[in-house]
Amino acid sequence: MESDVPPSSTPSTDSPHQRALRHLARGGRRYALPWLSYRRWRRRFFLVGAALLAGFIAIVFAVGAEVAIHTHAQVVGWSPWLALILGPAGFALMAWISRRWFPSTRGSGIPQAIAASLSDDSQFRQRLLSIRIALAKVVLTLGGLLAGASIGREGPSVQIGASVLHSLVGRRHGHIAPPRDLIIAGSAAGLAAAFNTPLGGIMFAIEEMSRYRVFRANSTTLAAVIFAGLMSLAILGNYTYFGRSGATLGWPSGIWPVVITGTVGGLAGGLFARLLVSVSRGLPGRLGQFAKQHPIRLAAACGLATALLGLLTGGATYGTGYTESKAALEATAELPGYYGIAKTLAILLAFVSGIPGGIFAPSLAVGAGLGANIAALLPNEQSSAILLLGMVAFLSGITQAPITSFVIVMEMTANHQMLLPLMAASVVSVAFSRSVAPTPLYDAMAQGLLRRRAHPPGITSPLPQTSESAVQDTPRPQ
Q1: Average pLDDT, stretch 189-203?
Q2: Is residue 410 within 8 Å of residue 422, measured between CB atoms?
Q3: Rounded to an integer, what distance in angstroms lies between the CA atom of residue 171 and that of residue 168?
Q4: CA separation for the pair 121, 26 (Å, rounded)
């Protein structure tokens, strides 16, 4: 006779221990161990693979940048006047390609990453961050360096890293972390691999990428930075960007170089950041009309002006400025008194042209020139130490990210003896920079991207008070 009791309700003769083991084998929530989950490990390995890929692209980008700069130097070495052809043609071609097919590659890349992290619109994020954009950013930035533009690869590396993690991990395994966390992690990984500065990458994630939202410490950012850094270590070795500097400052006499460089660097960096923000919103008068009607001609004119400036300075203003800054730090060459101003003008020309490329590394070169000028006024102090202070001060003045600035410079020179002076100069610089530029450069440009998305040209109604516009109106923490 069959029992009417359902099989599931039949009393079990198993012991509690046996039932617990069977429940564990089935993956019960109460007893299952997360580390045994195949899906969890597959997602983690996918994140690690994406971080390694981001680091690999950043390293290939770095090697390609050196080749492009060296090739330009060789061409100009054969005949300096060839720059008058290479500059306008290269600027015009890079501007035309970016405007025609890859508009999201224009400029640094850091504002694009910040805007994507602040937006909840997946389509908008996809327009700013994708594998297609990342590869185009590499090619177009290398083309700009080949043309002699004063641009850097560190800002583009941020957009590349954010694109890789957002596209490969976010779209396939979006539940491994929120899109914003993946963008921040990719940005930090890109910067860390570009400079070989893992601590600087983490500080950049906290201070720049999370300026308006609370940064939640998680393993995603840490893992991305670590494995991108391991890729850099495996290919390039344990190198420092500017070599190893043993520069020091005497104390308490060293307080005066700190105060002077912090003040001058903060004011100069803040004013330059304000100028770049104004330019990004449109040039004034007839020049602005010409830029709107003939953007490619404007880019060619900027390339011609860059070539002329390079001829006048003996080629010192071409490229990132890495060679000149490293030689000055190692005391194998001196920077001329006009170098800081000339390099600033070269950065401005590249920015106005609209070609892809960052301003991070060129800004360090401007800071080195500024430090050289100040060192000439303080002959009793070590000039290399003042150059480091100038680099930190000017970079802090532009970005208003003091911790990121002094950590990156400290890691790039392996100089821990200058930690406190660099920190002090950075803090002084930001204080003066805020007095002339209330909104940091990258944040102001990211806000512009968000406004244009929410308020396209031709629509004159005010921005809707969405979460994004509310973020834009939020005052920067003091």
Answers
A1: 86
A2: yes
A3: 6
A4: 39
Count of residues making up the chain: 478
Helix (DSSP H) and strand (DSSP E) numbers for the chain: 21, 0
Span of 392-396, 401-405, 467-471 with lowest mean pLDDT: 467-471
pTM for the model stands at 0.84
* Spatial distance between the Cα atoms of 393 and 232, rounded to a whole number of angstroms: 27
Which residues are CB-contacts of 335 (< 8 A; sequence separation ≥ 6)? 324, 325, 328, 368, 369, 372
Q: Which residues face 107 on adjacent strands?
A: 356
Spatial distance between the Cα atoms of 367 and 256, rounded to a whole number of angstroms: 17
According to DSSP, the residues that pair with 152 across neighbouring strands are 358
- Tokens standing for 300? 């060619």
Compute the distance between CA of residue 240 and CA of residue 200 in angstroms, rounded to an integer.
Answer: 13
Give the span between the Cα atoms of 333 and 345, in whole angstroms: 22
| Alpha carbon distance 108, 273 (integer Å) | 13
* Sign of the dihedral defined by the CA atoms of residues 350, 351, 357, 363, in that order: positive
Tokens at 16, concatenated: 């509690």
Break the chain into its structural domains and give their ranges: 38-236, 255-442
Per-residue pLDDT band at 455 (split at 50, 70, 90) = low
Q: Look up residue 395 and give its amino acid.
A: L
CA 104 distance to own-chain centroid: 15
Give the distance between the most distant pair of CA atoms in the chain.
107
Indicate whether 352 pLDDT > 50: yes
Q: Could you tell me which of 101, 128, 106 has the C-alpha nearest to residue 115?
A: 128
Residues 191-218 as b or e (16 or more Cβ within 10 Å = b)? bbbbbbbbbbbbbbbbbbbbbbeeeeee
Task: Match 């805007």 to its residue by tokens.
Answer: 115
Q: Which residue has the tokens 């100089």?
A: 415
Please name the helix (run of DSSP H) or strand (run of DSSP E) that holds residue 360, with its range, or none. helix 360-377
- Measured CA to CA, the distance from residue 179 to residue 92 in angstroms comes to 35
Would the pLDDT of 23 be above 80? Answer: no
pLDDT surpasses 60 at 27: no
User: Which CATH code, of 3.40.50.300, 1.10.3080.10, 3.30.70.20, 3.30.70.100, is assigned to 255-442?
Assistant: 1.10.3080.10
Q: Do the domains 38-236 and 255-442 sit in the same CATH topology, yes or no?
A: yes
Tell which wins on pLDDT, 301 or 48: 301
Q: Which CATH class is domain 38-236?
A: mainly alpha
pLDDT in tens, 252-295: 777 889 999 999 999 999 999 999 999 988 888 888 888 899 99
- Residues 171, 90 contacting (CB under 8 angstroms): no
